[in-house]
Amino acid sequence: MKVLVTGGTGFIGSHTAISLIKAGYDV
How far is the C-alpha of 12 from the C-alpha of 5, rounded, in Å? Predict the structure, then answer.
């Protein structure tokens, strides 16, 4: 599944992106 994370430069956005990548999502 592909996920688009907006605001990826912020702390919350980057933390969310890392969590999704670890969960196996294509971010």
Answer: 10
